Automatic annotation (TrEMBL):
Keywords: Signal. InterPro entries: Lipid/polyisoprenoid-bd_YceI, TTHA0802/YceI-like_sf. Residues 21-181 form the Lipid/polyisoprenoid-binding YceI-like domain. Residues 1-19 form the signal peptide. This is Polyisoprenoid-binding protein. The lineage of its organism: Bacteria, Pseudomonadati, Pseudomonadota, Betaproteobacteria, Burkholderiales.
Length: 181
């Protein structure tokens, strides 16, 4: 009896030790929006984000992730354009300063691959999303990479005259490269 209790306690400690709350390294992590403007591909990075991943490589289905992105931190490469995208017609950063994602399920999809499901919230609109990511250990850190395609109009990004998708396409891909420890 004592041996089975001791074995169970050791297994619980080992399982807890293999799980780790990881914080993204902002200097090595990137989150960007890829879209077409007048049919020209553009990739713009969000400069401010907070990403926390509670990752267990041995049991990925027990893992969790939360992401917060400051919408006004999108850098389009021009100060005036950066101010424009923070306005009501686009992100409305005054009323909705953050976009967020909270996972509800993380499932293994083979070696180094995961499928992530959760709630994406942008500009007050919340939807269920699922997307694949890759994960690998690199230099004592975990590297998570993936892309999430969305439709910007589903989140009211681009209101009024900006609903016209001939200028800015409806399709946007949120790309991320997260280096965490």
């Amino acid at each position: 009896m004592k041996k089975s209790v001791l074995l169970a306690a050791l297994l619980a400690v080992a399982a807890a030790a293999s799980a780790a709350v990881l914080k993204a390294d902002p200097a090595k992590t990137s989150v960007s929006a890829v879209f077409k403007q007048m049919n020209v591909p553009i990739e713009s990075k969000f400069k401010k984000h907070n990403i926390v991943i509670d990752y267990n490589a041995a049991a990925p289905d027990t893992s969790k992730a939360t992401v917060e992105i400051e919408t006004a931190s999108l850098d389009l490469g021009d100060a005036d354009m950066n101010k424009e995208v923070a306005k009501k017609e686009w992100f409305n950063s005054a009323q909705f300063p953050k976009a967020s994602f909270t996972s509800s399920a993380i499932k293994s999809a083979g070696p180094g691959k995961l499928n992530v499901t959760g709630k994406l919230s942008i500009k007050g609109k919340v939807s269920d999303v699922t997307f694949p990511i890759t994960v690998k250990a690199e230099g004592g850190k975990q590297v998570f990479e993936g892309a999430l395609p969305i439709k910007r109009l589903a989140y009211n990004i681009g209101e009024g005259e900006w609903k016209d998708t001939s200028m800015v396409a409806d399709e946007v891909t949120i790309k991320f490269h997260v280096v965490a420890q």
